[in-house]
Amino acid sequence: MNTPVFTRTDPALGEFSLRTVDPAADAAVLHSWVTHPKAVFWLMQDCDLAAVEKEFARIDADPHHDAFLGLHNGTPAFLMERYDPAHRELVGIHVAEPGDTGMHFLCAPTDTPVHGFTHAVITTVMEMLFADPATHRVVVEPDTRNTGVHALNKAVGFEIRRTISLPSKDAYLSTCTRDQFLAARGDH
User: Fold this and answer.
1) What is the rounded CA–CA span in Å between residue 185 and residue 188?
2) Do the bridges between strand 137-140 and strand 14-20 make them parallel or antiparallel, or are there none, so unpaired?
3) What is the pTM of this model?
4) Most buried one in 16, 97, 115, 182, CB count within 10 A?
5) pLDDT over 60 at 6, yes or no
6) What highest taxon heads this organism's lineage (predicted)?
7) Which distant-in-sequence residues (6+ apart) come within 8 Å of 150 by Cβ?
8) Is the dihedral of CA 137, 158, 76, 33 positive or negative?
9) Percent residues over pLDDT 90 in the chain
């Protein structure tokens, strides 16, 4: 289960890879990330270790939702969730088209930020999602207050479609097609 499912080499920062989350083995590191003050938009601030493990076990068992642990040069450094917006998160709010894939990502908190790291992470996430030929468009719903992620989303090609109200937040429903991502990267 610890075998990477996707690997990308960033010319400046090295190797980024993703592997499937192992709920029991990864719970402690994920708990330290999702309960950190910098992860306020992840909405798990008050969860204990057992609740985090239970949540990732639920995701693991869900046929419409996956979680991946991201590694930077072999060290756990980020989290990505992929979901089917026709079945999770946006049901009744967004009419999912064939090829739509939902995504969340979280960089591990750090006291020593590396310039360009979060951009390299979201680029890796988007490359992984678009490596699947069935994925035509990535859909996200970040909290309207999460200005940092809005800038990252725009940098990789996302367009805000509209503001939506979800049970836990007001969010910007945003989409990015494969062509928008390639154009943002400078590939045409």
Assistant:
1) 9
2) unpaired
3) 0.94
4) 16
5) yes
6) Bacteria
7) 142, 160, 172
8) negative
9) 77
